[in-house]
Design goal:
alpha+beta; single chain; nine-stranded mixed beta sheet; globular
Amino acid sequence: MIRFLCGACPINKSSAEPMRLSRYFLPILRETPKEAELVSHRLMLRAGMIRQEAAGIYAFLPLGLRVLNKICAIVREEQDRSGAIELLMPTIQSADLWRESGRYDDYGKEMLRIKDRHEREMLYGPTNEEMITEIFRAYVRSYKDLPLNLYHLQWKFRDEVRPRFGTMRAREFLMKDAYSFDLDYAGARHAYNKMFVAYLRTFARMGLRAIPMVADTGPIGGNLSHEFIILASTGESEVFCHRDYLKFPIPDADVNFDDVAAIQAIVDTWTSRYAATSEKHDAAAFEALPADKKMSARGIEVGHIFYFGTKYSKPMRAVVAGPDGGEHPVQMGSYGIGPTRLVAAIIEAFHDDAGIKWPEAVAPFRLAILNLKQGDSATDAACESLYRELSARGVELLYNDLDERPGPKFAAADLIGIPWQILVGPKGLAEGKVELKCRADGSRELLTPADALARFAR
RNA sequence: CGGAGUGUGGCUCAGCCUGGUAGAGCACCUCGUUCGGGACGAGGGGGUCGCAGGUUCAAAUCCUGCCACUCCGACCA
């Protein structure tokens, strides 16, 4: 099946093809490379997910790419559900565009500036507000074409002084960035709210509880902004919030994004309690909370949304005709999610001493078959049969058919964190059984191959 | 960008102080024995010791410069 959509871009659909380990490329490391400090960084290197090519610049190896694609697929589904429309902008931009907004000089050394063969000044995009505004103004003339929310998933480059923590704080990173366009503040506020709700769903589907916190707007600008933070002991920043955030409900998949009042109500709930990062922390307000509701923890920022009005539309003259016939600079917002950072963040949330414990929604494979005695005819036959039957039913699985002892197979399966393992060996088969192990809680049960098949068949 | 440190086979590291023919474990290849939680034996392949100069009869080792990477700090999706 051809799944190739776009060679150099990160837009490939997840591959559901089952795989034999003997034909796969999974360079597992038994020892931990010394540079890795953070547990997610260590595990990503050991599990053969990434390879560092320069400081803060990583290649995604096949296993890492599968996870990244799963994450992108969820991001995409929830963006689409909320009404955003995907396009794809380039990584390289012209400096002229950034001079229009005035940010070319403001952005500083974080921006990677390059020259082409004609000595024209170019840059590797750290974000795309200018470019999307340029695209918008080229085509959109009337308020009747609004609201509009355009997004893409593309590699960004920010030349961090000090990249660290693997893909958590890389210089090159994948980002989903969406940009909303509306005629007035009310429309822009609804666009902001829609993204807010989409983000709640997006992170929840990955098994994460992300808490929206009042945030600084930084060099993007604007005055309404939330960071979506997941709590993890290894988080980079200190955060403070009300304990109620741990149990607020996640909006259903059938939420109506056109229902302005309903969407606003969800946002109101999710902004009704104290929640702030250290930069915006109000110690007095936090101290006023009941003692059993106070939560201070470390957090990882996995998403950030901004409303910034006409900050770019005014200088770049992105205007539409309103119902009054006059010209109005368009009201904008931008909305980011970092999939490459999420890969690491999810590992921070789901791991143990043996390795990664992927939530099913983002797991590189759903199921692993471990042949515990390769070469034993009954064992081989049972494995092959399971592999064939499960493949035929579309189960994403990795079959460890290496001529290896059981120990390393157990260790590898635990390390790469596939949610379910079927252990097939002569001992069990003598009783007509295979063993099903759940990576998340370590539970095991014996069952017949037919029952195992039924368990995973859709 | 300030401070600290590290570059020796694919990985983890020893050797450097006190210069004298490059090592170990793991990984890899071959053969045999093994085989339900990272086996064992025998044999084998693989490194211009980050780069460039310098000192010396002789440099992984001493000196100078450069580069890369890591950690602490300021900065950040």
